[in-house]
Write a structure and sequence with these properties.
The longest helix has 27 residues, at about 5-30. Helix 1 packs antiparallel against helix 2, helix 1 runs antiparallel to helix 5 and helix 3 runs antiparallel to helix 4. By secondary structure, the protein is an all-alpha fold. It is built from five helices and no strands.
Length: about 130
């Protein structure tokens, strides 16, 4: 990935992350908790892809993002270990929200997920802005 390509990817992925987080807030306000959980997961996914892109790494699947983010961003010391758990947790919650007949997501759980995602997006934004 070229520097210009990485910059464009970082910008696009962060825009998608912001859009997904805004959608999650809107869905939560409307009482669409399962849908909000799914949007939160995608916000985290796109932000993680932005961090990887800043390092010149491209991941295409959720599993690939988790694996590469762990290897390069967490083991490399750019992000705390808790972010590995966040990525796993968000993916499981999205699968439960999208596919489980009964998913335990109410307003409290959704607001907590939105807050975690917002914190993660802020960490990623600081990282991509401070990394050449």
């Amino acid at each position: 990935m070229t520097r210009d390509g990485a910059d464009a990817t970082v910008t696009a992925e962060m825009a998608l992350a912001d859009e997904c987080l805004a959608a999650a807030r809107h869905e939560a306000a409307g009482g669409f908790h399962r849908r909000a959980v799914s949007s939160v997961c995608y916000a985290v996914f796109h932000a993680a892809r932005a961090a990887l892109a800043r390092a010149g790494i491209e991941a295409r699947s959720h599993a690939g993002v988790r694996q590469l983010f762990g290897r390069h961003m967490i083991m490399g010391g750019a992000f705390p270990d808790t972010d590995a758990r966040l990525l796993r947790h968000m993916q499981k919650d999205r699968e439960d929200a999208d596919y489980a007949h009964v998913a335990p997501f109410g307003p409290v759980e959704v607001e907590a997920a939105i807050a975690c995602a917002a914190d993660f997006l802020a960490r990623v934004r600081r990282h991509v802005q401070s990394t050449p």
